[in-house]
Amino acid sequence: MTRLIVAAGGGGDAVAAAMLHAALYGDEDQAVILTYAWDRLLIDPIPGPRGPQDFTGLEQLTPAVWTVPAEARPIAPAGSTLPRLAAELPHTFALIDPHHGTQGITRQLEQLVEHLAPTSIDLLDVGGDILARGDEPTLKSPLADALTLAACCQVNTPVRLLVAGPGLDGELPPEDVLGAVGPVTHTFTAKDVGPISSVLEWHPSEATAMLAATARGVRGTCEVRDAGLPVPLTDEGPAVHEADMDEALSRNELARAILHTASLSEAEAHSREICGYSEIDYERNKAAWLTEQPPLDLNPETVLVRLDGFEAEAHSRGVTHTTFRHLTEALNLNGTQRQDLRELLINSRPEQYDAPLWRITTHA
Questions:
Q1: Which pLDDT band, with edges at 50, 70 and 90, does 346 fall under?
Q2: Residue 152: partners with Cβ closer than 8 Å, 6 or more residues away
Q3: Are 337 and 295 a contacting pair, CB within 8 Å?
Q4: What's the rounded Cα separation, in Å, for the pair 325 and 113?
């Protein structure tokens, strides 16, 4: 049997989709994970999502859908985590192309349904910002989720909306998400994290890292993103809730506005009008700023001194954990140095590694 899982926001949602498939459906069923090639700037320095034209080595599944095998490569200077995901995980990763708006994604879904005849279709979002109205002050990246929600609502076949880790993306308060979801479908455990544990060693997703950490029993407060948002790690963290698709669309003003869009720029315009911004504009501005930043020397002694100062301040704020992405920014390092920083810290202080998070302590 074939299961189709749509990773609502791309990025870490695709990794969580692999974990969800193993937990709910096991090894006997095959999974096709439909996801964006829309990575953080430290992976892909070009703002916005990539399309099929940005890769070599893709394989055509239907007229509108291309899969990303391990041999595929993004065309420089673009970057993508998808080929490595395809190399390390047993699933088929198919590429969402949002450049033709919601109409284009709907067409992709319809062709996949006809071609695969999937036993089930799940739309998975980690954190729950797919349930946002659009005016929440903490909302940062509504466009990708709104596009997939709008498309899934127009496919003439049942789609189940699942929200994993309510509030873990730092975009909506957990209580807001919990007030908009239904019953718990599954609660991830440490065993469920096993199939993706190697991916968590390098993938930059913060929300999925916290999802995995809570499944492993980590509790506390995790500081994330460049702004240092505090995210609670609670017993609700590893839960997967079902949510009503129609109610989600009714809540999500942006998703309703872009139902009939035929281009990404058209969807972006609606985002600026409804939310006051486009997340791709934010990426454009940050990319321009990053090109002006010279690379810094990753001197171990200097880094550990800075780390002690950061941890003392974080501890005073009640923070118990952080991500390596946030540490990279907090220590004034370049995003491309994230993996080197991670290896340095784990080798220097392995007792503080609560995989895949960093545990805050205070040092004399």
A1: very high
A2: 6, 109, 121, 123, 159, 161, 245
A3: yes
A4: 37
Q: Judging by DSSP bridges, how do beta strands 120-126 and 2-7 pair with one another?
A: parallel
Residue 290: pLDDT over 80: no
**Nearest 5°: CA angle at 71, between 66 and 73?**
75
CB distance 93 to 59 below 8 Å: no
Provide mean pLDDT across the span 322-338: 89
Dig out the tokens for 358 from the structure. Answer: 């960093």
Alpha-carbon span 117 to 267, nearest angstrom: 29
What φ, ψ does residue 175 adopt, rounded to 5°?
-65, -30
Cα gap 231→321, rounded to integer Å: 10
- Of 288 and 101, which is predicted with more confidence? 101
Write the burial class of residue 246 (CB in 10 Å: 0-12 exposed, 13-18 middle, 19+ buried): exposed
Q: What is the pTM of this model?
A: 0.96
Question: What is the tens place of the pLDDT at every residue in 222-270?
Answer: 999 888 899 999 999 999 999 999 999 999 999 999 999 999 999 999 9
pLDDT interval class at 76 (50, 70, 90): very high
Q: Which conformational region is residue 165 in: left (phi greater than 0), alpha (psi within -120 to 50 degrees), or beta?
A: left
pLDDT at residue number 364: 44
